[in-house]
Amino acid sequence: MVVARDTEEPLRCACGTYDEFSSVPNNCLKGIKWSPDGTCLLTASEDHNLRIFELPTELSGEKSTELTSAVCTREGDAVYDYAWYPALDSSEPATCCFLSASRDHPMHLWDAYTGGCRASYVAHNHLDEVIGAHSCAFEPTGQRIFCGFDRTVRIFDASRPGRKCELRPTCSSKRARDGQRGIISCFAFAPDYSGLYAAGSYSGTTGLYTEGSPGLIVQLGEHTGGVTQVSFSYDGKLLYTAARCDPAIRCWDVRMTCRVLASFERSCPTNQRVGFELIGGLSDGLITASHDGRILVYETAAPQKPPTTLLTFDDATNAATIHPHLPLLGVAVGERRFPLDAAAGQHTAGAAAAEGEGSAPSETESESEEEREGRNGLSVWLLPPSVAAGKAGAEEAREGGAAEELPDAGADEATE
């Protein structure tokens, strides 16, 4: 791994792990998320496992600590999305849980201490077949669960597992031109508890809705690929959206004009989700991963200013998230790699050599290139205070609202 920095203060790796993800080929991570109280990290990977890594009590940065998962839970198929319970507090075990959505399976609420399934939320189609949610999120109070399907949002009561839910179509029919089309891929809720929320779609659009009404307020376009992440600013006046196969993170004014105010570039040429995060108590910074291996920091008030490069890795980065209270940066590294067909590679190299563009590579070079695999893993870095300043203020701005009691462990068995 190569580390490059534009900051004056050096960054040091405090802890991380790569070995735990090396047992399965192409076992790349699908982002990482800090728990609301900052005690641990949650991640999902291609081997259908969700892992929780506890943050060491001492982080000196002089020697990197190898992390091992404290809890490892396996889903039945590919994990599409996952989310922490927003009122999680490690001192109260009843609140320590997280939600996951996977292909052709119900959503599961997992115990963060034991890894056991506390509850299942089951969605059915018109043939009464179980269908899997493509995205899931708790609303800010933690009382309800929003999950995305094809042209539909389903809302479950978090305290009532089972199949009962509220159905909110985002488009009246497959052929209809009104409404928001495509699979609902992500959610974000306004931090002021106004009930406003944004839903991204793989059709490349973002819809604005209110929790109390199923109707679409306004639809935002502009992206060339499917929207993979949406995030509100600290005051709920601005909305940031990002999409796959689209290098731009767009900033929208959602108060009246609903137009693009700024755009922040990063490398994102594939369908892999590349995450970003707003930082600072006033959302005055934006940190993003990049397919070219860089971790970039932008000033949201000066989008024309070149970004600061915090880190550079040898492989693609797909998530960069700052600790809720401490100057720590979590980074997820890795991507899927598919070896080229040997015959096709030799044919292409031979043709290039015949045209005088270069010599054909040796068999040893060809084999080493085909066998090369990227390193998939995560690492935690000590940040200079100037980068992480104000993060705690942003979290305090989101506090408030009572959380409803969730089902205890054993309240409902996992429905497979």
Description of the molecule:
With 416 residues, the protein is mainly beta. Helices cover 8% and strands 39% of the residues. The protein is built from 4 helices and 31 strands. The strands form 8 sheets. A 5-stranded mixed beta sheet has the order 5-1-31-30-29, with no helix packed on it. A hairpin with a 6-residue loop joins β17 and β18. The longest helix is centred in the C-terminal third of the chain and has 13 residues, at 342-354. The two termini are 40 Å apart. Residues 347-372, 397-404 and 410-416 have low confidence and may be disordered.
Largest sheet: 5 strands, mixed
Shape: globular
Sheet with most strands: strand arrangement: 5-1-31-30-29
Residue-averaged pLDDT:
85
Radius of gyration over all CA atoms, rounded: 22 Å
Count, helices: 4
By DSSP, the count of extended strands is 31
Which ranges are low-confidence, i.e. pLDDT below 50, for 5 or more consecutive residues? Answer: 347-372, 397-404, 410-416
Q: Would you tell me the structural class of the helices and strands?
A: mainly beta
